[in-house]
Amino acid sequence: MGIKKVGLNRNVEPQTLSEKVFFLDFMKGLKTTIKHLFRKVITVDFPFEVIEPAPRFRGVHGLRNVDGTERDDFDAWVKKLKIKPPEMGETRCIGCKFCQAACPVPEIFVIKTKKLDVPEDHPHHGLKVLDRFDMDLSKCMFCGLCTLACPTICIIHTDIYDLSTYTRRGWVLDKEMLSKIADDFIARRGKEKYDDKSNWPDWQKIWNDNDTARAKAWDNDPPQFGPNYIDQQ
Amino acid sequence: MSWVGLDKLNKLKERFDYVQINESDKGFHSVEVPKENFKDFLKFIKDNKDYQFKMFIDWTIIDHGAKADPRFQGVLILFSPEYKERIIVKTWATEETLPTLTDLWAGAKWAEREAWDMFGIRFEGHENLVRMFMWETYPYHPLRKDFPIQGYEEVELPSLNEEERADQLEGLQNYSRKHTALPTMQDLEITQKKRLPHKKSQIVLNWGPLHPGTHGTIWFLFDMEGEYVQQCDIIIGQLHRGVEKLAENLNVQQIIPYTDRMDYIASMNENHSVCIAAEKLLGIHEKIPPKAKYIRTMLAELSRINSHLLWLGTYALDLGALTMFLYTFREREKIMDIFEGISGARFTINYFRVGGVYADLPYGSLNAIEHFIKDFPTRLSDYETLLTRNRIWLKRNIGVGVITEEEVYSYGLTGAVARASGVPYDLRIIDKYDAYGEVKFDVPVGENGDAYDRYLVRIDEMKQSVRIIQQCIKELRKMSKNDPFFYQPEDKKMKITIDGRGTKLFKGEVYAGADNPRGELGVYIYMPKDGIKPYRFRLRSGAFYNLQIFPKLMIGRPIADAITILSTIDPVVGETDR
Questions:
Q1: Residue A5: in which H helix or E strand, if any?
Q2: Inter-chain contact B364–A225, Cβ cutoff 8 Å?
Q3: CA-CA distance, B401 to B388, in Å (whole number)?
Q4: Which CATH superfamily is domain B6-124 in?
Q5: Contact criterion met (CB < 8 Å) for B340 and A53
Q6: Chain A residues touching residue B486 (CB < 8 angstroms)
Q7: A56 reaches B (C-beta below 8 A)
Q8: Strands B228-235 and B442-445: what pairing?
Q9: pLDDT tens, A115-154?
Q10: Separation between Cα atoms, residue B300 and residue B270, nearest integer Å
Q11: What's the CATH number of domain B243-577, 3.40.190.10, 1.10.645.10, 3.40.50.720, 2.40.50.140?
């Protein structure tokens, strides 16, 4: 570790007379640009060609439904918060509001649960269900703190990045919409991102290595993926 | 750690009986001096051979709340280049005034204007105490504790949609028509006139705020005599969002996404500064798992390359070399792909956490980074062939905007701007935060301090970054996949979480930061008691203080040099305005 002096006469030689007279500095520059002229095109022809976002990409949120890949402590959380045990296909959200607590802009979320209106002898008496889950994405920074806070991996980021609408109301997504987005994402790319306990597995790739559009941006010479650490497969 | 020792402070106390020492168990001791003796004390520690605190770092205010008396406290942070130490000097601002420090350090000029703008402290003897970010007729001082976080919503400002469609918008809008105060054209005119009170010639050229050459929304005023600038001033604040105010109402992990939006070109590094400061306040910085340390060092350097590439491309573009812009943006795209894969976002990254990083590296990320840095040096030499010895480049850069070593200390310049003037001020070797103590690299230092040296320094920094990344990858390859990437506290009192809920800060104060591509982003956190929200969260922006020297460099230069000087200072408006 040291100090390295840089300067015109230190690591850069001043122009010599022949360089000045014959414009060799311009020639060298032109050589470089001409060399680059014969390289392959690297720009992606959007929207006809689209780069698939990485599995970790933080796009529009979704609310996952129960599909048999919950974490082991899912039932314990449901019991703790007195939520009606969800069936297959119902939302995983338990109304704990951890996402709102973790959010830097808590007014994004409107989360409400309601008590089930059932007779006293019904097994679900006294339990709650999720009533309302609205997210105002116009205020969202897509920082990802809510998804880290979620104990049931219900709120997730999907790979959708185009969310323009004509009115501001269009940015407010309700729970049906969010569930639909998540279902669609999990069906498309769930296997890439989550293992069978909804955790991020260590084989989760930095990005899909079969993506030809991304390979183009990497000079048609994309990196070959291998393990990061010595004991990784 | 680069902090002044207790023995030196005790000697000061022996010499001046009014000095009060606030000891800190984390080692960040500060001294408190009465207002009357403040200037004498500072003169002494600036010039005395045993101290030599001649480099200005930061000068700001803490508001202790409306009930406290005296209410405001000035906090001055200085650095001694001789002994590589920092010191905090505090003084109480009785009657809401403080003596000006502009005669000791020229860098205090903008700091005092900011303190006046945000806290309403008058500095006696300041040459032109006008607001820094807000317009001149703005009635409030927003960083005072009694100013509400949402501001005073007092102006009715319907949108165009509302004007045209009136009440047919039922159900489409969900926001209030009331807004906080906005400047009118008259307000801006008053502001502009106050910034240049003594106009010297006929023409004042307005450059910006919306001009591609200013790289953001900076508004320059040039008082011109022919083609030469006689006087210059800068109006910034168009992008002021009050990050410091917002931070006072958030926990420390929630602040990190906001810092992404400050220096949006090197957001990894901005996150890094906050993490280091909070970790030092908690006393856990040394205990961060080595995996997290190496990942953070590696990605911070990758981000430095990213930022310098954008600087190089736009700088060359401004001076007329369009090709460079296209070449550097191609490489940036790869770096942003890597960031996207690792953290989930290309630009506003929010990957670092207080205590480590939020997730381990995904499969193949080290391969991708290796692939990039294997190729990058050849690209860099392409750039150098195009520019370094090109005669136009030499003519436009050599001897332009010369910054002397004294000016570096006086203005508190940091980063590549300071290093090009021959000051080897680099927090990476002074503080040795994260893994910087364990990797080998050189600090490039220039000789003349002109624009050309700043160019060479930044080019060389990219080469050094590649070296650091190579070493980090080598270390990471040796680790196990089960190694932790986030610190688990043993202490029951301490609580830090990845998602930030309940992350607590300890009582005390800290000033720490990281060396960012645009200079030192220091974070000063003041906590009167343990708690979740920081009481005062000061962001010492490198770009803000670096930009301050621009008006001085422009005096006597032709208008065309404004581009060169501004580009080599390389401010990002998100960071100057915060």
A1: strand A2-5
A2: yes
A3: 18
A4: NADH:ubiquinone oxidoreductase Nqo5 subunit (3.30.460.80)
A5: yes
A6: none
A7: yes
A8: unpaired
A9: 888 888 887 887 888 888 888 888 888 888 888 888 888 8
A10: 9
A11: 1.10.645.10
